[in-house]
Here is the input.
Amino acid sequence: MGLRQAGASRFLTVSVAVFLTWPPSLWQFDLMSWLYRRRKQYIVAKAVDAVDVPPGVAASGDAECVLFESVAALREGRVEMPPSLRDSFEDLEGRLEEGCLVFLATRSPGLESEKNVVGYCICERGVFSALGRKRILAADIMFTHYIEVTPEYRGRGLADMIRHEIEEHCRANGINVRCSVIAPSKIPSLKSSLRAGFKIVGSITHVSAFNGLLVWNTPWKRIEKILKKR
Here is the structure.
């Protein structure tokens, strides 16, 4: 952000603070959001040829991770999505139709029963997506939209097991870089990614004023430059 833009942002913030009482009421919060809003996410990245994180030992005993690349394959997989996860089965189908890859971690209660999903990851090759913006990038980049794990499997190494499967897929398909974005407030997700070998390589910011009348976003050239340095 340039000096003029930064100065305008500071002036707007101070003006709002002067004219509003503290603590603000609900309508004052709405007014502040209307006048000025700033969102930020860290960009984390990892070279695929770096040291990999092994599968989660505790979770690997009764769970397995499988890649689904098509709606037909997902339907044949006979999986059941628990309500504790953010996506439904239909949501995953929609993601696959958009060109995403779905890595599902499942466990089978019985030989003939459907597999219960205990975690999953949505990835997409050759793109970068954050704060409502999406752009096609080099084909050797794998972007992770998010990883979800059911409450009972959190802290048991399941996310590491999913990441391991993604790494194996990347190595086998000529993908050199994995990246994602994480909000600063998502401390557990950030710590998990850093333990898995990711590094914070930059950040992306969205600033809007007067209900979107004035908008500033981190330029795509800067984002591409950050990912090239990784």
